[in-house]
Amino acid sequence: MHGPYDALLLVSFGGPEGPDDVMPFLENVTRGRGIPRERLLGVAEHYQHFGGVSPINEQNRALIAALEEELARQGVDLPVHWGNRNWGPYLGDTVAELADAGVQRVLAVVTSAYSSYSGCRQYREDLAAAVEPLGDRAPRIDKLRHYFDSPGFVRPTVRAVIDALGEVPAGSVLRFVTHSIPTAMNDVSGGPGEQMYVRQHRAVASLVVAGVEDETGRRVPWELVYCSRSGPPSQPWLEPDVNDDLRELHAQGVPGVVVVPIGFVSDHMEVKFDLDTEAAETAQELGLPYARAATVGTDPEFVAGLVDLVRERAATEAGEDVERVALSAVGPWPDRCPVGCCANLRGYKPALCGQD
Ligand SMILES: CC1=C(CCC(=O)O)c2cc3nc(cc4[nH]c(cc5[nH]c(cc1n2)c(C)c5CCC(=O)O)c(CCC(=O)O)c4C)C(CCC(=O)O)=C3C
Ligand SMILES: [Fe+2]
Description:
Elements: E1 7-12, H1 22-30, H2 37-49, H3 56-73, E2 80-84, H4 91-100, E3 105-110, H5 117-131, E4 140-143, H6 151-165, E5 173-179, H7 183-187, H8 196-216, E6 222-227, H9 242-252, E7 257-260, H10 269-286, E8 290-292, H11 300-317
Parallel strand pairs: 1-2, 1-3, 3-4, 5-6, 5-7, 7-8
The protein binds coproporphyrin III and fe (ii) ion (FE2).
């Protein structure tokens, strides 16, 4: 059953595939965004530290393979295509190829689970830019609703946290980690004043903590902290930074910490560098026992959960009455984003998959 759709389209960030790609990639990411040059050079070093290769592309190839397998297993006959915002295969090229192949209806699955300009509307603008040159030949593109509070995202995270808690002393605490964004971007995430970026993350963290308690009987103290701040120091971004927080935890005498990167669906550079390299080093300097919980990646339950959401959407588009599973009170997120959702603070641009 795949309702009206002809194809799935995995939509992601993209990343460099070798040392010479790093600066052109970073220029693509930061064009017109006022990111200080020192920050850019610093981030270039993070990539060069890993041979100039971002882990994200390989992880997306693995996710596509896992999705194809699960779709076949469930008897859903939908091919999976792939397009990125900042590096090849570029979204514009992929969507043009789909049009050439006569594909008419596409369901986009974005590798970002939450509402924010960077993780939601910017991708919707990218989709609009991708169809724009194609005119009447453009496929119609829908976007899968946000899956942060889906069982397929929450349950593997619960398991990952339980595993990681086994690596640190009893009495350790949890620190859920996500990408910092400007507070002004958070304010309009999900709609004017909604602050959905933070609210959705806190909802996921609560669900995970409750899941861990259900399974282990342990109620573990937690907070939400941030990594990967960029932008000029004068601009407020979400805080605390994970490294500052580790110092604070050490000062409080906690016996250890598990960091849980719920802001990332796989081990992106932020996870590999900002957590596994930098934050791990901070913890080591402090003598603070530290473990990092796995991201959902290609966990079979996550992949099956995405396919469940694909089927839900296909049925909805086919006019069927379907149950919309969501574990938190801030979900289920609507299929089409509401007016003013995750506004572009630099000015309105056309976007697909929303009411505006
Ligand atoms: C909310 C959010 C997500 C999660 C949602 C999602 O997954 O989409 C995300 C993902 C990612 N961000 C990534 C990389 C970068 N992000 C940057 C810059 C920025 N990110 C921002 C926010 C987010 N980013 C923001 C507000 C900026 C400032 C500039 C701007 O307003 O746009 C910069 C420039 C240098 C710097 O400023 O740090 C880089 C290199 C990669 C690839 C990693 C890899 O290679 O594995 C991924 C998945
Ligand atoms: Fe980013």
